[in-house]
Structures are given as structure tokens and as C-alpha cells.
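hey so i finally got around to running both of the ones u sent me last week. sorry it took forever, my laptop kept dying halfway thru and i had to restart like 3 times lol. anyway pasting them below in the order u listed, first the sequence line then the C-alpha cell line for each. didnt double check formatting much so if smth looks off just lmk and ill redo it

first one:
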Amino acid sequence: MNHTAHFAVLAALLFAGTAMFAADTDKVEKHDITLKSGKVLKDAYVLDKKPNGVTFGHKDGCTFVRFSDMPEKAQKYFGYDPEEAANYEKKIEDQKKANQKAAEKQKAKEQKQKAEQDKRNKERRIAQQEQTVRKLELQLEEAKKKLQNTENTVSQDRGALVSTLNNNQVAIDNPFGFRVRTSQNGAVRNKLMKEVDTMSVKRDNQAQDVIDLQLKLEAAQKTLDKLKESNG
């Protein structure tokens, strides 16, 4: 068979199928159905049937109609069985309840998991904040020690400076491990004064460091307290 003849056969089969479909469509029973509400379904025909009702195709689209919404004549025509319909609807309702119960159970499970995860996250933040507080406490302790040492040095230097001014002499440690007395001179006095000024500036800076660390520690401790309170 050549290509032209093959195409002709396919076209004939296609036309025949279309004609049969059109004929079947024409054979569908159509009715004007008036519902109990007064609504009229024009040219209605059955698309699907369930024990509790019928899905109709009609002039304006498609609609599911419960048997209870149909007049008695239509109920009988479409084979309404009240007991079968009641069992079917009960089955549907039971399935809805089962689905709802399963959904609620799943939701409760997810909420529990979320609550547990939130608790773990809070506990982790608390542990991290505790480490921050402890670190600041150690830094503050070390800063206070440095400040005390500097204050001691300033006090000693000032004492030595006052001693030179009052006694006109100054005691100076030498490399051999013993102290000697030497006559006051401008170089020694200036050196002591410079040392006092330098150490005083250092002391003031260290004092500010202590204050800053105290403020940071107080803020960190407040944050820790709030985290613990929210996790209580």
C-alpha cells in the first residue's frame, strides 16, 4: 500500500470514530430537572453517580446534586436508596474525622518537635552566653590586677620623686643588687617625673578598660538572665 492510500484509510477511520462519538453524544438522555430549591438544570444528563447524589452536566456547566435536594420523582428515577446513601455519607464523615484526627496528631507532633528544637536552641544560646560572661569576668579580673600593679608603680614613683624633692637626694637601684645614695640632679628628677606621668596615663587608660569591661559584663549578665527566664 502506498503512502496516499495509507493516509486515506487513516482519514476514513478518524472520520468514522468522530461520527460514532457524535452519535453517542446525541443518544445521551437529557432532562430539565427542577430541584426542591426551584433551580432548574436545563438539558441535564448524568456525568457521575454516587449513593448520595448525582453529578449532572447541563446547559450552564456541571453540578453535584444530593438526592435529598431532588424531588421524589427524580429520586426514584435515579435509583435513590436512603439506607445506602446514609451508609455512604457516614463512611465519608468517618473518613473526614479520621483525616482530621491524623492531621491534628501530625500537627501536635510537629509542634512538639518545634518546641523541643526551640528549647535546645535556647539552651545552646544560654551556654554560649555563660561562656561570654565567664570570659568577661576573667578579663575584668586580669584588668583589675594590671590596674593595681600600675597604681602601685605610680605610688612608688611619686614617693621617690617626693623624696628627692624633700631630701635633695634619691635612692637608685644599681645592677649589683644594692642601693646607693646619690646627689640629686636634674636628670634624675626629670626621669622620675616622666616616669610618673607615663605611668599615670597608663593607669588612667587601664582604669577606663576596667570600667568598659564592667559595663560589658553587666550587659552580658542581663542578657543571660533574660535567656534563663524565657527558658524557665
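and the second one:
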Amino acid sequence: MIVRRIINGGNSGVERAGLDLAIQLGISHGGWVAPGRLVDDGLLAGHYRLKEMAFADGPRSGDANLEMADGVLLLSRGALSGEAARLHARAQAQDLPHLMIDFDRYTRFQSSLLINSWLRSKQVEVLFITGPRESEQPLIYRDTMECFRAAWWSLMMVEPVETPKPSDARDDVPRTLDEAVGRLQQVLPLKDKVTIANMSAAEIAGLGTTLGRYVQKRFGIWEGNTDLRRSCLQAAERQSLDDEEIAALIIERLVRELQKTHTLRVI
């Protein structure tokens, strides 16, 4: 299984390298960034498709990215420290597949082989790449770029790649906003429908890391699904929407429909 999406919080060093690699290699990218798109070296550039956290005093962006990920790749020179070490510990506690690469211990070639093997064995689709910032470990951006690029291309050469079938050629994904909402109403258990219908605004916003990810993955949004994207653009009266915004629009419409039929009323 080839990585289909790379996520992180956009900080300099390892995380920025991960996003740039995704763009260079033609992999979807995203993740959660602090409010105001504030990262360690200033404001994150607009071409990185990250979603802002709603509240400065809410959950950290790193924790939100952990919730979205199928696996975590941590790269460093020497032992992890600070936020990277905290995220490593959380991944271990959650039993989330994770791999720590120490460039002081392994050569770039050895590191690329370890990453290659891990990605294939764990079948990671949504990969959270993180580690030290550039101010903490100068040149860690360069090291990350060189190592992961080598791992990716060796993965391509060692195991033939089956090109994913474009969502436009599939008959199992919804084509319109109404179809997407209807599909969710079909698959959600009754208790989940009632729960969603009675959520507060803040709780509904939090669905982006759970139900939102399901929508993006199962409805072919990551693979394009131009029909569904066009329908959502028309409904939102917008010229463009990123993947997270499309999922949020579908969830917003779902909530509206469920509130008509599943809201609990006090008698």
C-alpha cells in the first residue's frame, strides 16, 4: 500500500520537508496547523493545504494530526526532544504504527530501506511526518528530503505500483452533495445520528478529524471525484474548496438534515 497523503503541522525542518516532498512527489498533503497558521518560523505559506485549529487554547495541532494518521514517521539526528518526543510517546501509548529514524545511527541508504520496509508492512495510507525543527537541528530539512525521497523511489522500483483507479471511473462513490449526505445517513448507526444531531457547534467542528477523514477517503475526494467537488462548489457558491472544506460542507449539510429528524426534545 503506497502512502496517499502526508500530514503534519507545517513547522520548519522535518515537517516542512514532509509537505514539500508530498508536493514534489504528487502526493496529497494536509493536516492541522495552529490558529492563524502560525508556525515556529512565522506564518505558514498559503500553498500548504493545512487546516487551522479553531482555538488557541484547544487541542494541539500535533495531537489532531495523530488522530488523522495511519502511521507516524519521526526523523532526527540523535534522541528526540520537546514536541517530537511528546508525539512519539503518544503514538506509542495509542499503539499507532510508528518508526523513529536516527540519522546518527543509520546511513541515508539504511534509513531509506527501513522506511521502505515499514511503509509496506504497515500499509500506511495517511502518514504523519514529524521531528525536530530547523532551529533545533540545522540541515534536518535537507536530510529528511534526501532520505524520504530515496525511500519513496526505491519503493516504486522494488514493488510495482498499482495506479489507483480514479474516482471518476468508479461507481461506488457519491457524485453530488445530496448523494454524499444520503450515503452518510445510510451508513451511520442510529445512535451516531442522534449524537451528531444534538452536538454543540464546537463538537461539530471537531468532526473534521474523524468523520471528515472518513468522507475524504471513502468518497474519493483524495482521488479527485470532480463531480462531487463541482457539486459542492455550486452549493457553497465558491470558486475553490480544499479537501477538508468539501468534507466540512458535507458534514454541515448532514447535521442540518439530522437536526430535522433526530434532535432530542425535552417534554
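quick thing i noticed on the 2nd:
Residues 167-261 form one domain.
anyway thats it, ttyl
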